């Protein structure tokens, strides 16, 4: 009888604590992105300023650093400065940088490109189809995608040069 | 923790005040009247405290704790209303500065204590969660033993139980007590009492159902809280916000990129200031325009699900067109789009012309007119007479950044500045540097020396922007069910009374006792009817000093006093 009572009490308390705990976890934990670590990166197709077509799936076998940015975002500019510096070095090691603009038109991006002289192509996402599918809500947001197309990290916010290099280093394909 | 066996043979749990079956007082509490709360059953919580589970259980089982939780919630909720919550401060204001600016030191403190987002803070949520736990455990801990006690109650009660009821009396030895009891039974039946008989004694009971009212009420409240809890899950509840410019198509947030909305046209109607009928009202608003209605003519689109990649090549199909107005949302697939706000006259296009600075110009440049789309500017404008204007740089929302460089805050043309480069027919745009000028609203500066040409703004086009709330609320049915059950419980507990009357034949004496959970006056009236029709006397109210029942009879309020002295 006492045993039964204890079991019933434990079950009721557990159910309530788990429900409440899960709600708290869901509400307060750092929000998991729509696309996040461990997910298969959704395939997307974009065009750069010169009209060159790129599909993520075509980069299978390489590490891919997908960076969402905008011309008005100063943290993005800092980050892209570092990326410009290391682009060719890591391209030789099998890491591609895919810079996807967030919601701006070609003309604006083109002038920005001229002003800052990035050496990697800038892809457009005027209707935010790609950034939306990737759950991008603040800039810059980067996705580190390994050679098998799996997201190994979702990085939100400004990054230092060391952090950017460390991220690129992680992306070097193992074979 | 021994069980207690009563003289009548019933085995009661430890901590029982009154035997669940015959009602014999088991604990000597030195009170002249029996404590009838919860039928004198053992509330488990108050008697066992062994393992951690029991201790936690007992903590939440205490009504005292429950009341404290409610008091704390009330106080906290009051705190949250002193200044507006963050979501109600004017759009664009930063909470970190707004509260101090607006409310001074107290405002700063309010912000620092996190009271500006209090209702979603961990501690407030924890309080509400504790209330939920307290409700469940308090109710379970009381309703289970109460239900058992009322189910196992015997007709023949212990003398100690009867004599310690609030309403009690007994007669002298009388002739044929059975007859009186039989008569009383008839009277009580007419009053819709349920009669239970045993050895010539009767128990008349009605409205036991009312005793479950509070628990039904609590079940409703718990369902309501569960509904509120589910709002934290996007599957159940989405509350998002989108801004859509006229002519623009945006993804509807919260729909996983499946639905898109195009703003075909946005209109605002104002009340006619000339109209006599509105004159008084306009005087009150100080002559400011008053919005009559605003509406977004929108087209809902859905992404066609092809297996290809996201982005390029995405196709849309139009689902429907709808005029969204306040309180007239566009509803689709469980989502609703509500009209909530708008921004009028956002800059969208500038039209310019080129002029020579010297008046002596023979050249006619008035043919040179071009329009710059401030969201999607063309970079080069070429004209038949060989002139060429290029956009050298464009800043939709101009400011000078930390590095002392011109920059833009965002992509919205709230303060657009364009640097134009002008090439005359003689110049080669690939090798020569044209005249540069920075042009904006009320701004026109030459950047590389004195300019021969001036770019003059001749027209401005503006656009309206609509703000819509995206909402999906699947918790509403749960909240409604909870609310309805809550009300049923409330009515059940308020409009019915649980009355019991015991009439017992003890060796020729008739023992009369009565109990009700509320409205003692009503119970006394029932006794009066018995007294009128039989030889059974009116029971005395033992809480009245001097037993002056006759004199207080009919005086309301006195009758409702509690059982304890």
UniProtKB/TrEMBL annotation, chain A:
PROSITE patterns: THIOREDOXIN_2. The chain crosses the membrane at residues 7-25. It holds the Pfam family AhpC-TSA. InterPro entries: AhpC/TSA (IPR000866), Thioredoxin_domain (IPR013766), Thioredoxin_ResA/DsbE_sf (IPR050553). Keywords: Cytochrome c-type biogenesis, Disulfide bond, Membrane, Redox-active center, Signal-anchor, Transmembrane, Transmembrane helix. The keyword Disulfide bond applies. Residues 35-173 form the Thioredoxin domain. This is Thiol-disulfide oxidoreductase ResA. It comes from Evansella tamaricis. The lineage of its organism: Bacteria, Bacillati, Bacillota, Bacilli, Bacillales.
Automatic annotation (TrEMBL), chain B:
The keyword Metal-binding does not apply. It is a multi-pass membrane protein. Residues 63-528 form the ResB-like domain. Pfam families: ResB. Signal peptide: none annotated. The chain crosses the membrane at residues 65-83, 122-144, 215-233, 476-497. It is found in: Membrane. It comes from the Bacteria. Keywords: Cytochrome c-type biogenesis, Membrane, Transmembrane, Transmembrane helix. This is Cytochrome c biogenesis protein ResB.
